[in-house]
């Protein structure tokens, strides 16, 4: 993975600034700083963000908070300097020329307070709806790397076919592809995701798994029998579609968790690590962050992984994949 060396698990900051999906409010910031401090001190060094994270006027809030929290981290400078910030640059229709992509990356550097980012990723491919923009984006990624703004480059929401195309293009330009980020969990392991995983293994790049808890459905904390437990908004709609068929998988996860002295969430995250992925669960409070950390320091057995895969294969309604993911 070249310069992209990271901890077995990272941390995703999608919720930071997102009022619509995650109910963010500014009064959460002090606890989020505590969450960040605890994770950094615990050895988590990959923090994934995006320049589009944050709803409405809060767009860019996630990057700003990450920069602010890093500045205010009270621990040692050596530990702080080991933090790797990975951002994703949105495929906005006005981002066409290499210069525009370089400007976008510089804006992310400014918001995060960094001289250089560990990783810049294309947030999604435009191959499905604006194929002419796609190649221009690749040139933008090359320009960002050649300008020395980042240690490495990657892509997000790229399917196996488009992944092969961009990896070949970057290789010709002398730019190593370091990471591929896709939705990947026990509920996101259909043929396309498995093909992405195989391509990552073949190319020798990191697979960063976002939504390893399937928006929270794999935590076992939500039940259709208790409608008040379900989240509101778009997440609630997905939960109502998927949860009815999840009982056998969640029961198995609960059994493994009890036997291991762990929680279903920790089993789900550990499963992703056992696949060779780098999961990036989020956390809105200390309790969630500490629970996520409990996924480290142990491994599911091969038999447990097989049983989980078999149970996941029998789920009648798996997670809907990100609409931006290409073939």
Automatic annotation (TrEMBL):
Supply the SUPFAM superfamilies for this chain. NAD(P)-linked oxidoreductase
CDD domains per the UniProt record, alphabetical: AKR_AtPLR-like (cd19093)
GO MF annotation: an example = oxidoreductase activity
- Membrane-spanning parts: none
Q: Which UniProt keywords apply?
A: Oxidoreductase
In this protein, which residues make up the domain named NADP-dependent oxidoreductase? Answer: 8-311
Query: What is one Pfam family matched by this protein?
Result: Aldo_ket_red
This protein's record includes keyword Oxidoreductase: yes
A GO cellular component annotation here is: cytoplasm
Q: Does the keyword Transferase apply?
A: no
Protein name (Swiss-Prot/TrEMBL): Pyridoxal chloroplastic
Native source species: Chlorella sorokiniana
